[in-house]
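Lab notebook, design round three. We kept the backbone fixed and only want residue identities now. Task for the bench partner: fill in a sequence for the structure below.
Input structure tokens:
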């Protein structure tokens, strides 16, 4: 029987792989710039057209991103690929500018407590810090994305009402932010809560200007991605091998694995332009660099399927 609702899903989805930035920012061991650069190269070779490379934040706050300029300078850019970076203030923006980002990301929060812990200022103050960043970027012709952290729940404040998301979306719109990423930083969202948060952002941004960013702490991120697709949202941040975490969101695990989202989308007949096998290789490779198994269920399954069948019992019999 033909599905009555599948036709409402988008036919193409844009994925931004945030592994080099969100995936690695919380990593305690030193990850050499060369490995970060190779990760970007492998992602683009697998077909990713959007990669979040690094952040221009204080190296005292996030030491892992201290090599931001070196990583940006080291990547061999592929035509058609957009390389984005996080810039929390003018100091970060000015440093980022020299590295020629294709997009900059300002990052606020729907939770006052998280804003203080993450960027050391209130929500209102953060908007005032972002205002000149957005204006300067737009004047330079660089697209500006805004992220709203803790859009369904906060490690310090608990549940977050959709009205909080709507407020931050409105404030971001007011300073010229062109795209809003609605982020479930600690992965507590479930599908209906995820839709409520997106609907709040959609009051101020068109559906083509909204993306989802889901951490997978409670295993809900693929379901939440599907819930977002049902609203017509077709852009998502994902992270190869499920890498990720925020230093200011204790207990939050990785982002949803790019492999897991791609497997779902391709299974639904939705195009991503990504070669899933090459992506799984990339996930296995970076997990090897970090010395642990991939967090992607799909990545594990694809790699296991390639292993030669163990016929030792057959021989013994
Ligand atoms: P601050 O201390 O309030 O800033 O930090 P300040 O202006 O008072 O400056 C203090 C010092 O920081 C000065 O240096 C500045 O020069 C320096 P000092 O004189 O002490 O040597 N400084 C900077 N250095 C480099 N780059 C900069 C910069 N700005 C100031 N841009 C600040 C404010 C935002 C910088 C700080 O709180 C910070 O860096 N926080 C890190 C935030 C972060 O990276 N969090 C993780 C990313 S967000 C995330 O993961 C969520 C997301 O994935 C979505 C989701 O899942 O929710 C996006
Ligand atoms: Mg994140």
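Proposed sequence:
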């Amino acid at each position: 029987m033909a599905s009555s609702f599948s036709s409402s899903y988008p036919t193409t989805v844009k994925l931004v792989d945030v592994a080099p930035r969100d995936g690695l920012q919380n990593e305690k061991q030193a990850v050499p710039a060369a490995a970060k650069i190779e990760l970007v190269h492998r992602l683009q070779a697998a077909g990713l057209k959007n990669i979040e490379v690094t952040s221009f934040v204080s190296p005292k706050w996030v030491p892992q991103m201290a090599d931001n300029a070196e990583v940006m300078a080291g990547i061999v850019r592929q035509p058609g690929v957009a390389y984005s970076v996080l810039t929390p203030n003018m100091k970060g923006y000015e440093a980022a500018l020299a590295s020629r980002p294709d997009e900059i990301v300002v990052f606020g929060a729907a939770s006052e407590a998280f804003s203080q812990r993450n960027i050391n200022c209130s929500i209102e103050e953060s908007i005032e810090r972002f205002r000149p960043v957005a204006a300067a970027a737009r004047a330079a012709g660089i697209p500006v994305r805004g992220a709203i952290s803790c859009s369904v729940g906060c490690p310090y404040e608990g549940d977050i009402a959709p009205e909080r998301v709507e407020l931050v979306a409105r404030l971001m719109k007011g300073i010229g932010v062109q795209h809003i990423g609605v982020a479930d930083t600690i992965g507590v969202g479930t599908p209906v809560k995820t839709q409520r948060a997106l609907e709040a952002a959609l009051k101020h941004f068109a559906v083509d200007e909204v993306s989802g960013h889901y951490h997978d702490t409670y295993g809900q991120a693929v379901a939440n991605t599907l819930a977002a697709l049902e609203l017509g949202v077709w852009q998502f941040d994902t992270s190869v091998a499920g890498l990720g975490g925020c230093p200011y969101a204790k207990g939050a695990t990785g982002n949803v694995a790019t492999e897991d989202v791609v497997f779902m989308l391709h299974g639904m007949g939705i195009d991503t332009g990504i070669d899933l096998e090459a992506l799984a290789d990339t996930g296995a490779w970076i997990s090897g660099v970090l010395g642990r198994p991939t967090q992607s269920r799909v990545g594990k399954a694809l790699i296991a399927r390639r292993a030669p069948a163990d016929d030792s019992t057959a021989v013994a019999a």
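Keep this in mind before ordering anything: The pocket of magnesium ion (ligand 2) is lined by residues 22, 183, 185, 213, 215, 244, 246, 255 (CB under 6 Å).
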